[in-house]
Amino acid sequence: MGSNNFGGSHRLTALAQQLRLYKPPPSLCNLTEQQPPPPTQQTTGNLVSQDLCSNAECATPIAHHPERSKPKSKRAAVLICLFEGESGDLRVILTKRSSSLYSHSGEVALPGGKTEEGDADDIATAAREAKEEIGLDPSLVDVVTVLEPFVQKRGVTVVPVIGILFDKKVFNPAPNAAEVEAIFDVPLEMFLKDENRRAEEREWMGDKYLLQFFDYEAENEKYVIWALTAGILIRAASIVYQRPPAFLERKPKFWHRVANTDTSTS
């Protein structure tokens, strides 16, 4: 990932430039302390990075640092791989997890997974997992930014990595049958629209929040994108299109608690 030899449309090129400049809002800067900074145009090995936040106190880059303050099993990364569809819309690659998996079986997810010992950073984790799960060669994807992390109830920090696939035709999906049942793509903008969407109120530790559910049908298959995956894609779409969703979001507070908080609560 991170090669400069990408073609693609002017729209994707402009989007890549836009996203390379992304900085988290000040209220979320404390969550970026364990994130690698976003990539620049230059490459050495994989990626050369720049600070996520303009103020020094909220940026502590770890992109090439061997140590982490959290155990490996408490950190994960997912790849938001964007490309331009045949009709010119911006689309994102998703998977349906295998029904034989122990956790989240049969659910829709972004390619990604837990950090492993050999991963240099979150970008490397997302790239490795995408290769293993769907056969996406990292050299085909231009990583443009890393978003602020989301924290699951059990304390796992999930870091979204945004990459652009400039030429979708060169990607030949190869799902890992042990992990992935299907590979499909959806328009990114759907996560800002109040269409084919519903929400359910939940409560955790006194915090009432809404879980968002998005229905999508492709090739006679029906999919439901919900919970953390939906939340990450709403955030990504809001950044890409530079506008908020057309519905009440009311996210769980625990998604954006300090990323290095250790918790065993289920």
TrEMBL record:
Keyword Nucleotide-binding: no
Stored Pfam families: NUDIX
Biological process terms in GO annotation: acyl-CoA metabolic process; coenzyme A biosynthetic process; coenzyme A catabolic process
Residue stretches spanning the membrane: none
Record SUPFAM superfamilies: Nudix
Region (Disordered): 26-46
GO molecular function annotation: coenzyme A diphosphatase activity; guanosine-3',5'-bis(diphosphate) 3'-diphosphatase activity; metal ion binding
Source taxon at top rank: Eukaryota
PROSITE patterns associated with the record: NUDIX
One GO CC term, this protein: cytoplasm
Entries under InterPro entries matching the protein: CoAse, NUDIX_hydrolase-like_dom_sf, NUDIX_hydrolase_dom
Residues of the Nudix hydrolase domain: 73-229
Cofactor(s) needed by this chain: Mn(2+); Mg(2+)
Keywords recorded for this protein, A-Z: Hydrolase, Magnesium, Manganese, Metal-binding
Protein's UniProt name: Nudix hydrolase domain-containing protein
Organism: Liquidambar formosana
